[in-house]
Structures are given as C-alpha cells and as structure tokens.
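ok trying again, last paste got cut off:
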Amino acid sequence: MKHNFGAGPGILPHEVLKQAAAAVVDFNGTGLSILEISHRSAEFEAVLDEAVKLVKELLNVPEGYSVLFLQGGASTQFAMVPYNLLPEGGKAAYLESGVWANKALKEVKYFGEAQVVATSKESNFTYIPKDFEIPADAAYFHITSNNTIYGTQLHKFFPSPIPVVCDMSSDIFSREINIADFGIIYAGAQKNMGPAGTTLVVIKDDILGKNGRKIPAMFNYQTQIEGGSMYNTPPVFAIYVSMLTLKWLKAKGGVAEMEKENEAKAKVLYEEIDRNPLFKAVAAKEDRSYMNVCFVAENPELEKSFLKLCDEKGIVGIKGHRSVGGFRASIYNALPVTSIHVLIDAMREFAEKNK
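nice, full thing came through this time. structure:
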C-alpha cells in the first residue's frame, strides 16, 4: 500500500478513483466513455449541475454568487482577477506570504499598480504577516489562504473595507469559511477537490463590470457566468471527478466534519515533529498549515536516509519543495489518518536508529 503525501496533484479517495475508472470505459450505462461524451449532452449537463449544486451546498454559498469551473489553473486567475476588477490606472492590494502570492503579484503589474501591504519574504515566508492596513482606495485585496511550499496557513481572515480575493487552491473544502467575506475565491482542483484540469471560481456577481475594461471573452468572468462554465468545451473529466469527490465529501459529513479530521491529523503529526529530536518544523507555530506540514532534519546529512526509509514503507511525495528542501507531508482531505501514523512510526524508527 502507498501512503500519498504528494503536494499536488494530490491524493483522491479510492472509491472516487474506482468510479472514475469505470466511467472511462462506460459512463452511466451510455456505452460511451466520460472522455468522449458531448459536453452539450444531457448526461454531462447533469454532472456539471450536480457539481455546482454540491459546491453551493458544501460551502454554503449565499445568493448573489456564481460558481464556475474554468481551465488554466489558479495561475490563470492571477491575471483574470485584475483583468476583471482593476480599473485602468487603479491599484490592488496584495499580501505577499509565499511563492504563489508572489506569482499573483507579478501578474497584476500588467494591469495596474500592485501595493504590497505586508510580506514575510525576509524570513523565507515562515510566517503570515499580520500587522498591516488594507488601503480603502484599492480595487481589491488579494490573499493566499495556504502556502504549500512553506507550510503556513491563514487561520483567521482579515476584515477588509474592499473586496477580498483569495487563492484557496490548497485548502478549499478543508475547513468552514464564510463565503460572504469574499468577493472571489478560486482554487485549482488538484489538491482537495479533483484532478488537475479544472479550477473552481466562486464570485460575487455585483463586483463585476465596473472597471471599464474591454476584456476578451475567455478572460471575462461575466461571459463565463452567462455561458454556465461552457463558453468553450469544458474540462469534462476533471469536472466529473471533482463532482464525485464532492459527493464523497458530503457523504463523510461535509466540510465541518472534514475540518475536525484535518485538525486531528495535523495535531498528531506536529506533536511528533516537536517531540522527535531529529526533526523540527519550519513554520511559525501559530501559522502552521493543516494541509502541508513542512519540516527538516536537525542534521541535513540524514535527509536522504530518512527519504530512503519512507520509500521502503510506501510513503511517497514526502520530499520538500526544491526551493526549501527537507520534508513536506501534504495531508489533504482524502489522506486517511492511518497514513499519518505510518509516517509517525517511520519517524520514531528513524530516531531510534540514529540516536
């Protein structure tokens, strides 16, 4: 058995994989593969409708918001957000808390001024900045809720006088949030929701159409809303698997139950890291992520040996990002607590061997 701690594409529920595999051969008795049915067919329209319905239910999306399944990953949203929200000559506010926040920040500069309200770059993004003011004259305030590379997470969101835009790619559906606090949330599917290939966008309708720009159709949220996520051929398979994953999540008790499980998984793993003399966590304790647990060996010369032990025990995806090193345990929704204990046992065994 493999224990998949990969950061993304991440682990999916086994029962979802079985359903998706069957649908690749014969989708719902149609005699056609999910990969070859028309996106305009009644069968796929039912899939998309169900996916949108589940998003609204699981996130408790209020009236006045639209749910989109788009392509291009969260990285395309880095540009779509300012294209749709930032007026010519305007400015947007950004919290720089990691690599993905930095990449979003670079994209906005093609459309206007980007004001960095705070950054933790000087500490190699080991904490979430907190002491700052959000400028009321900015078009929006952009944040990244969870940082996969550095293992930090916003555990509370900031009150804002302007619309908040949040990249939730790595912790969407992992905890309860109040959608009404945000103008836009977006998330690549490939960590907690489905396979790579589609991106979820939940957007407050009344923030659109106010910046005076002429926007190409594919990059215009309003066009995508009017087209029901089908202005062009949508990523059929990715949406289908996302729908199955959302059904699985609902059956488990929804986001509230998932939040309890995720906190419990993170708690026992961090306890072992703090207890074990061979390892140490890299993120500030109050900002530690419940999704991506980053840690290093006290003695860097032992890293390769620990990775070898993990490989022997079927633990995969544990190597840290190339820009940070060390180890990263991504403990997304579908990762069972049993895998956490396999990792903990490996850490304890390693400590015994290297006293």
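cool. The CA atoms of residues 53 and 67 lie 9 Å apart. DSSP finds nine helices and 14 strands in the chain.
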